[in-house]
Amino acid sequence: MLRRRFKLLGKILLGFIVLVTAFLLIERWRGQIALANYKKELRAKGEKLSPQDFVKPFKAEDNGAPVVYAAVEKLTNGIVLPYSYPPRMKLLESGRAVVGFREPEWVEKDPFRDGDTIKGLVTFHWAYLAADLQTNAAALAEIQAALRQSVLNNQLDFAAGTKMKFGRLAPVKQLTHWFGGATQLALHEGRNADALQYLVSQIHLPRLLAEDGIVISELVRIAIATIARTDTWEALQAEGWTDADLAAMQQAWAEQNFARNMSRSLEGERVYMAQCSQQLRASNEDTYEMMFGEYSVWFSGSDSQNSGWWKWLEEHPYNEEIMGALRKQIFCRLWRFSWSHQSELRTWQTMQELTDIMRAATTNASNQSSEAAVSEFYAKVGDMNFYDQIRFPSFDGVGGLSRTVNKAMQAETHRSLCLTAIALKRYSLRHGKLPENLNALVPEFLSTVLVDYMDGQPIKYRLNADGSFTLYSVGEDGKDDGGDMTLLQGTKSRDLWKRRDYVWPAPATPEEIEEYRKKAVEN
Questions:
Q1: Residue 380 lies in a domain
Q2: Is 326 part of a structural domain of the chain?
Q3: How many domains are contained in the chain?
Q4: Domain membership flag for residue 89
Q5: Residue 400: helix, strand or coil by DSSP?
Q6: Contact criterion met (CB below 8 Å) for 51 and 159
Q7: Pairing of strands 469-473, 460-463
Q8: End-to-end Cα distance, the chain
Q9: What is the mean pLDDT of each run of 10 residues along the chain (523 residues)?
Q10: By residue range, what is the domain housing residue 290?
């Protein structure tokens, strides 16, 4: 009798193993077939599917990027730069801003210097900045010359997948402090020609990353452009510009692009992510490191971590050893065999959907037109049952990519505002007054009235009774509040996007400047 029971248990166990093996095989074949069919559909649509699709041939001598990075290595840290940037467009609660280059000095609390923090309030003088720039004048001149090269290409290798290096992003962003600081000093000293030279170099910095074709580089490009916007605002507060100067400043902004580049970067991102999937499928060590390594965010939102068995395992004296073995030797191997193709398929599908949303937003020149699609995408990507969490452990962070649409639209709105503000300055210089409306700028200073990428409608403008002007975007809510600079309820942020409308700041009043200086010394 006992022997018969053991035989029965053996048959049940064998049957269970056969069923599990068959299930895992079916899941593997299902993923492989579906992935191959979907990629065939994408090819038929002309979509880019391989790293080679992002390689652009060029002559090595035309590429200024290596020269830039070599010159960056020659920059030496000074008293001010690159850590303690001089003041620029210091936004006040009123929505107006302090003109930084007009400040006699500036105060910073607990400034960072070469790995250490200097405790207390430290006063910086323009002479310190001048000394820093003089020391690094030759290297900065090399960088400026290289930025004028016809090609700026970092030659990212998408085939490297998880081994791709992004070490060049930080140096590029750091250059905004050097060029921005040089612009501010030149404005402070009334050297408009030098200020223009440095400002144009700063506006062109995003070109260094424009050919990367990946989202992280595009987000850094947008961050650089946001910084360049503040220095453009500062420059427009200065007197003594000629129409040719302003036209050069305007041309630099006209040559930038963010929405179209973000679409291309999302195309590259999906190829990069697919390459990562293929690499993980080939290496258990890489899979374990990516899923459970020191910098992993995979499984970070899994509901399983709140379950009773998980808590029991955490309390077990050998929990780390047990979990390490289960994760690396069982789960990672099962995932690579059975679900890695399904995970890659989901990568292609979700990234294609987001790319299409970005393309539509670019075509419509409107963030508002894509909001519903972005919200639906975010909810869909995050809606995973327990089995989906096992198959698609990397998708906790994919939903965050939906913010790229909004970021690109914000950057394009910055560009529209900068171009329009420069055109207004040119009109005022040539005609001795501000225009009644933006149509007066066409075609003398603009080819067309520029678009507010928040709602797809023209940028808003009003000539005020006191001779000033109000130039604005409707902001993230897409609602025109007439240029209302009121902070959104519940926020103390002085970010221009945290107001009812995004308004191009007017210079602070003398009373506000006095209060600003008083608080800077006290705090």
A1: yes
A2: yes
A3: 1
A4: no
A5: helix
A6: yes
A7: antiparallel
A8: 87
A9: 72 82 93 96 94 90 95 94 90 94 90 76 92 97 96 91 85 93 97 98 96 95 96 97 98 96 95 91 88 57 45 60 80 91 93 96 94 91 82 74 94 98 98 97 97 97 95 95 90 86 96 90 69
A10: 16-46+265-405
